[in-house]
């Protein structure tokens, strides 16, 4: 697991994501997903550079089916930004860092 990316689980999701003071970008990921591996360094970089604005976490959908089902996540990677305990933006698929930062700017 990357240094700046905390892993959350079905058990810790409510505390770590819904209860966070900062907005949280959740990366719904899976070990078998090549695009998930492609976006991991992008998320790591964003987590390091934007730590004052947003928290970035990963959730392994194979090991944590409850959160995946609750938010209807069907494709990996799906990135959902939560603010104040509510999902405010959802993005599907890997993307370049510049595009991700632009999308985050819309909701931060």
UniProtKB/TrEMBL annotation:
<dbReference type="InterPro" id="IPR013766">
    <property type="entry name" value="Thioredoxin_domain"/>
</dbReference>
<keyword id="KW-1015">Disulfide bond</keyword>
<feature type="domain" description="Thioredoxin">
    <location>
        <begin position="1"/>
        <end position="108"/>
    </location>
</feature>
<dbReference type="InterPro" id="IPR017937">
    <property type="entry name" value="Thioredoxin_CS"/>
</dbReference>
<feature type="active site" description="Nucleophile">
    <location>
        <position position="33"/>
    </location>
</feature>
<dbReference type="InterPro" id="IPR036249">
    <property type="entry name" value="Thioredoxin-like_sf"/>
</dbReference>
<feature type="site" description="Deprotonates C-terminal active site Cys">
    <location>
        <position position="27"/>
    </location>
</feature>
<dbReference type="Pfam" id="PF00085">
    <property type="entry name" value="Thioredoxin"/>
</dbReference>
<protein>
    <recommendedName>
        <fullName>Thioredoxin</fullName>
    </recommendedName>
</protein>
<keyword id="KW-0249">Electron transport</keyword>
<keyword id="KW-0676">Redox-active center</keyword>
<feature type="disulfide bond" description="Redox-active">
    <location>
        <begin position="33"/>
        <end position="36"/>
    </location>
</feature>
<feature type="active site" description="Nucleophile">
    <location>
        <position position="36"/>
    </location>
</feature>
<keyword id="KW-0813">Transport</keyword>
<dbReference type="GO" id="GO:0045454">
    <property type="term" value="P:cell redox homeostasis"/>
</dbReference>
<feature type="site" description="Contributes to redox potential value">
    <location>
        <position position="35"/>
    </location>
</feature>
<feature type="site" description="Contributes to redox potential value">
    <location>
        <position position="34"/>
    </location>
</feature>
<dbReference type="InterPro" id="IPR005746">
    <property type="entry name" value="Thioredoxin"/>
</dbReference>
<dbReference type="GO" id="GO:0015035">
    <property type="term" value="F:protein-disulfide reductase activity"/>
</dbReference>
<comment type="similarity">
    <text>Belongs to the thioredoxin family.</text>
</comment>
<dbReference type="GO" id="GO:0005829">
    <property type="term" value="C:cytosol"/>
</dbReference>
